[in-house]
Amino acid sequence: MISLLRKILFGLMCSFWLSEANAIPVVPVQSEQVTEVIYPPPQSPLDTRDNDFIEILRTALEKTTDTYGPFTLHPTEVAMNPLRFRHEIMEGRGPNVIWASVSQEREEHLLSIKIPLRKGILGYRLLLINQTEQHKFSSVTNQGALLQFRAGQGSTWIDSDILRTNGFTVVTGSSYEGLFRMLMSGRFDFFPRGINEIYPELEKRHTKYPNMVIEPHIMLYYPLPKFFYVNKNNKKLAERLRYGLNIMLKDGSFDRIFIQYNQHHIDNIHSSHWRVFTLTNPFLPEDIPFEQKELWYDLTEDNN
């Protein structure tokens, strides 16, 4: 009996050894590395200016998951002003992507993806003013006449430097919402805003500032593209975003987002005739792809 049990056990052990020897080896599957992308939060509860940038960013990441793997996308938990946010990216702490107006200084310290996120329309600026001051602007027929008025801008915005370079007196504020208060309290005379910004900004603040209006005749223009920027060493994220944006340009999703968020603002512009004062922007680097006409939208073609 014991001998029989030994034979059975020996047979089972041999079968096990043979099956192990002939089995297909199992290679452990390594989990894909998840790319965490952290972007700037709104500057106030009423701030919806950059919703299209967030959608472009998300879409570019979604279209590259097959090549670069999964991702998470969320804003920083702590609100930061743009200057601090850029500094955090430069230092590689926490946030890792920002959208910002192009300048030589940013190109030196950050890595850009050279595709203008709004086709350059942010450079077309209308003026928020106090309605009680409208009569003063009605007589402005040239840029020189506009120089007598004080412009308001954010203290960290490159627009402040652009306007000063073009001869304007600029009053700055450190708070986005505070700039609207400063305008309506007479701290400055006009607040230039991008055509994609000015209509929702006015609508959301109409109850609080019923006398805040858009000056109906004057438009400023200076080239002011916005790019995605990442840390200089984060070449993998830059490569992924560039790849995703190029896919979007080819499949039409980039233009669909542009139209979804901006067409009604463009229609508003085309419904009026504007005196367009063109300013210079000496802070642009030389390698902006202005020659790629498909990347840009020219509002002035239909406003002459």
Question: What do you see in this structure?
Answer:
This protein is an alpha/beta fold and about 300 residues long. The protein has 2 domains: about 35-120 and about 225-300, Periplasmic binding protein-like II (D-Maltodextrin-Binding Protein, domain 2); about 120-220, Periplasmic binding protein-like II (D-Maltodextrin-Binding Protein, domain 2), CATH 3.40.190.10. Helices cover about 40% and strands about 20% of the residues. It has 12 helices and 11 strands. The protein has helices spanning about 1-20, 50-60, 65-70, 80-90, 105-110, 135, 145, 160-165, 175-185, 195-205, 235-250, 255-270; strands spanning about 35-40, 70-75, 100, 110-115, 125-130, 150-155, 170-175, 190-195, 210-220, 225-230, 275-280. The strands form 4 sheets. Strands 8-5-9-11 form a 4-stranded mixed beta sheet, with helices on one face. Strands 3-10-4 form a 3-stranded antiparallel beta sheet. Helix 8 links the parallel strand 6 and strand 7 (about 170-175). Helix 2 crosses helix 11. The radius of gyration is 28 Å and the shape is globular. Residues about 1-30 have low confidence and may be disordered.
Query: What is the share of helical residues?
Result: 40-55%
CATH homologous superfamily identity of the largest domain: Periplasmic binding protein-like II
Number of structural domains:
2
Number of helices: 12
Report the order of strands and helices.
HEHHEHEHEEHHEHEHEHEEHHE
CATH class of the largest domain: Alpha Beta
- Beta-strand percentage range: 15-25%
Give start-end ranges of low-pLDDT stretches. Answer: 1-31
Strand order of the largest sheet: 8-5-9-11
- Biggest sheet architecture: 4 strands, mixed
- Structural class of the helix and strand makeup? alpha/beta
Distance between the termini: 107 Å
